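Notebook entry, structure prediction.
Reason for the run: the old model in the group folder had no record of what sequence produced it. Starting over properly, with the input documented here first.
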Amino acid sequence: MEIKSDFLVVNDRSIHVRIYNPDGEKTVICWHGLARNGFDFEILAQNLGKTHRVLCPDALGRGLSQWAKKPTKEYDYPNYLAIAMGICDYFAVKQMDWIGTSMGGIIGMLLAAGPCKDRIQRLVINDIGPEVPKDALIRIIEYVSGKKPLFDTFVGYRDYLKQLYGTGGQRTSDQWIRMTQTSLRRNNRGQFTVHYDPEIILKSDENVPVIDLWEPFCQVTCPILLFHGVLSDVLTRDIVERMRSLKPQMLVTSIEDCGHAPGLHLPGHIAPILKFLA
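New structure, fully documented this time:
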């Protein structure tokens, strides 16, 4: 399978997109979580790439994409939606399926409810709902906007990632190495630190913002597959049940012994997606 990278300019910013099976007739876009990057979908994309063209962007300020020049104005959902639309236009995507983890799921919901309502045929939402419990939101803001970890060794950074993402599903030693390789950069002192712009989210003394996307969620008309990490504090059972009550046809895949968010890298994660998109 051919795999290549492209760097396109959207809203005057360079955005990196990894493409699996560039000549595939059907298109899937996979969008990652808040502090992650498009390499998270590597295993899933290799499976989907047998039948689809798979686009895995690095969101602005993550991975190999450019960082914002005006963080408070650029790291927000309206700009992420505009960038997503720009990616679709660049790759001439007329119809697509969307797979979104956490932040990527929110972007998918908003697109499917509005500007891409006719483009998105199927929507996979990975462990996020139309609202996020306050305690979970505080936890996310704390680790993303807090003091950035610094490690002198690769192994130290790998172990840090294991603590953060170990609840997303088992990984082999090689898989942890690969995840670590695509999740770090060296600072000007030669230490390993996070790969994303520290200002993707800014900690403030103001009240934690309320996320309420129930109205857009209700406006989504395409088929939905929801992944739920049973131990997740971001997508709780109560939120799942309310989503089910509003969308009785929505499919739900519950991943036991898994928190936020399922890695979509294990056979038990991948099989439901392949079936849903078939």
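Summary: The domain at 3-133+212-277 is CATH 3.40.50.1820 (Rossmann fold).
The old model has been moved to the deprecated folder.
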